[in-house]
From TrEMBL:
Protein name: Enoyl-CoA delta isomerase 1, mitochondrial
GO cellular component terms attached to this protein's record: mitochondrial matrix
Organism: Enhydra lutris kenyoni
PROSITE patterns: ENOYL_COA_HYDRATASE
SUPFAM superfamilies: ClpP/crotonase
Pathway annotation: Lipid metabolism; fatty acid beta-oxidation
GN (gene name): LOC111156125
Catalyzed reactions per annotation: (3Z)-dodecenoyl-CoA = (2E)-dodecenoyl-CoA; (3Z)-octenoyl-CoA = (2E)-octenoyl-CoA; (3Z)-decenoyl-CoA = (2E)-decenoyl-CoA; (3Z)-hexenoyl-CoA = (2E)-hexenoyl-CoA
Oligomeric form and interacting partners: Homotrimer.
Family: Belongs to the enoyl-CoA hydratase/isomerase family.
Gene3D superfamilies: 2-enoyl-CoA Hydratase, Chain A, domain 1, 6.10.250.170
Top enzyme class: isomerase
Subcellular location field: Mitochondrion matrix
GO molecular function: delta(3)-delta(2)-enoyl-CoA isomerase activity
GO annotation, biological process: fatty acid beta-oxidation
Amino acid sequence: MALAVGIRGLTRSLLRPWVRVPGPARGRTEPAAGGGDGVRCFGSPRVLVEPDPAAGFAVMKMRNPPVNSLSLEFLTELLISLEKLESDKAFHAIILTSDCPGIFSAGLDLMEMCGRDPTHYAEYWKAVQELWLRFYLSHLVVISAINGVNAAGGCLLALSCDYRVLADNPKYAMGLNETLLGIIAPFWFKDTLVNTVGHRTAERALQLGLLFPPAEALQVGMVDKVVPEDQVLSAARSELAQWLAIPGHARQLTKSLMRKPTADRLLKERDADIQNFVRFISRDAIQKALRVYLEKLKQKKT
Ligand SMILES: CCCC/C=C\CC(=O)SCCNC(=O)CCNC(=O)[C@H](O)C(C)(C)COP(=O)(O)OP(=O)(O)OC[C@H]1O[C@@H](n2cnc3c(N)ncnc32)[C@H](O)[C@@H]1OP(=O)(O)O
C-alpha cells in the first residue's frame, strides 16, 4: 500500500493556495481581527483568515458547512492557512474559531472513513496526523474560541491549541466521543486528552465517549475559560495579550519541551499508525457501525 502520501504534494495538487475568499467576503477589505483597518482577509474556500499583522495575530475561521466536518480538502486548507501564517514573521498567534453557527466542528468527516478504498483511508489518515502534529507543535500561540458543539476530531483540534475559550451554551458540548460510534480514539488522541485533563478524567471520558457541556468542560480542565457566547472572540483576544507578552523564543522552547515527547510517539510510528487505522476502518463491523451512526444522524431530522 502506498503510504507515503506527502501532504505538501497533496496540498499543491488539490488547491490553488490563497485563492480569494469566495462569497460575501470576496475582494472585500474588512476590519482586521484585532480592529486594524484596511487589512485584507484571505484564505481558501473553507478557511477564512482575518489577519491583524499590527497586533501580531490572525483569526482563522473554519467554514465547511453544515458542521465543519474535517474532510480531506478541509484538513488540507487548514494546513495551508497554518503554514502561511507560520511562515510570515508578522504573525505570532492564531485564534481558531468557527464560521458555522452553533458548530465548532463535528469531527472527522465520516464520509472519508466510509465505503472508500485503503489508499484513500491511508491518505486521509496521514492528513489527520499532519493536522494534529502541525497544530500541536506550532511555534505560534494558538487559542481556540470554541463557539459551538465540538466532537471527536474537532475536540482534538481544540485540545492541540495552547488555550481554549468555550461559549457558555449548554448545547456546546465537547469531547472525544469515538466509543459512541463503535470506534476507538488512537493513542495520540488519548495522549493529548491525558495531557490536558489528567489520566483518570481521560480514562472515564474516553471509555464513556463523554461530551462535556461548558460548566463540566471547565471543571475537568478540558477548557480554560467559559464566557457568554457573544464574548468568545474578545475573551480569546484578551487572553492572547498575556501569551504575546512572553519572550517568543522562551515560550516556544517551553512549548516544545512540554509537547515534543507526545508528538514523537506518533512520529516514530507514523506508518504503523496509518496501517492500523486502515486495517481497523476497513473491517466490515466498523464500516457497518459507521453507516448505522450516519443513518441515525440523518433520521434525527425526520
Ligand atoms: C480509528 C478511528 C479514529 C477516529 C477518530 C475520530 C473520529 C471522529 O472524529 S468521528 C466523528 C464524530 N463526530 C460526531 O459524533 C458528531 C456527529 N454529528 C453530530 O452529532 C451532529 O451533526 C452535530 C451535533 C454536530 C450537529 O447537529 P445538527 O446541527 O442537528 O446537524 P445534523 O446532525 O443534521 O448534521 C448536518 C449534516 O451533517 C452530517 N454530519 C454530521 N456530522 C458529520 C460528520 N462527522 N461527518 C460527516 N457528516 C456529518 C449529517 O449527517 C447531516 O447530513 P445530511 O443529513 O446529509 O444533511
